[in-house]
Amino acid sequence: MNMNAASKAYAIVDVESGALAADPHRLISMLYQGALLAIANAKNGMMRVAHARKARNGTLHKEVAAKCASISKAIAIIDDGLNASLDKKVGGELAQNLSSLYDYMCNRLLVANQKNDMAALDEVARLLGDLKGAWEDMRTANTRTPVAPPKAPPVYAAPAAPQQSQAKTAPVVAMKASQPKAAVAAPIATPQQRVARKMQMLYGRV
Q: Would you place residue 172 in the very low, low, confident or very high pLDDT band (cuts 50, 70, 90)?
């Protein structure tokens, strides 16, 4: 993990006191949570902007500024924190794909800001929520009861953007299960655990 980049993003999330005592796993979780909170605030801001336009009560400028600030905060957390903290040397192609997904999220947030597109905010929140769930699953991955493996190799793929004119498709981050060595008896991992282990490789040991 790039701790300098992560520390910069923690300041953006306003969780300095908690970050001082948090381990690397917790710090990445804080970044995901901070980005999701900023997006939720941006959605509320969009609704207030729409209300101010209808009411014409003189608060439109203030509400627009607040909405823009929330979206800018989410972009900064994703780009300067989650993306910059990736270990691209270790992660290889998988890290590059995840980095492209983060870039896609930032672009969608820019579109949301320019067009007051609530669907774009929902899309980014959904993608972040999926990644956050896989990351947090890592904490208990080694203590869960093994289950039968799926018939097909598990693949994590981010959904495509809504079908619009000139809309870009979300990069796919495929996290395929690695085959265990024949001579080693290893516990069976769930698809969620395998995704978590791939993410652990990208952000370093926790």
A: low
Which is nearest to 191 in space by CA: 177, 174, 206? 177
At the topology level, CATH places domain 3-203 in Four Helix Bundle (Hemerythrin (Met), subunit A) (1.20.120)
3-state secondary structure of 114: helix
Residue given tokens 């014409």 in the structure block = 56
Please name which of 28, 24, 8 lies closest in space to residue 16, comparing C-alpha atoms. 8
Rounded CA separation 37/79 (Å) = 16
Distance CA 1, CA 205 (A): 8
Residue 204: φ, ψ to 5°: 95, 170
- The CA–CA distances, whole Å, from 147 to 79, 103, 187, 188, 189 equal 36, 35, 9, 7, 7
Q: Which of 121-125, 147-151, 173-177, 180-184 has the lowest mean pLDDT?
A: 180-184
Distance CA 146, CA 28 (A): 26
According to the model, what pLDDT value does residue 85 have?
84
The residue extents of the domains of the chain are 3-203
pLDDT (0 to 100) of residue 25 = 77
**CA torsion through residues 27, 31, 32, 36, sign:** positive
Question: What's the pLDDT band for 84 if we cut at 50, 70, 90?
Answer: confident
Calpha distance 3→23 (Å, rounded): 11
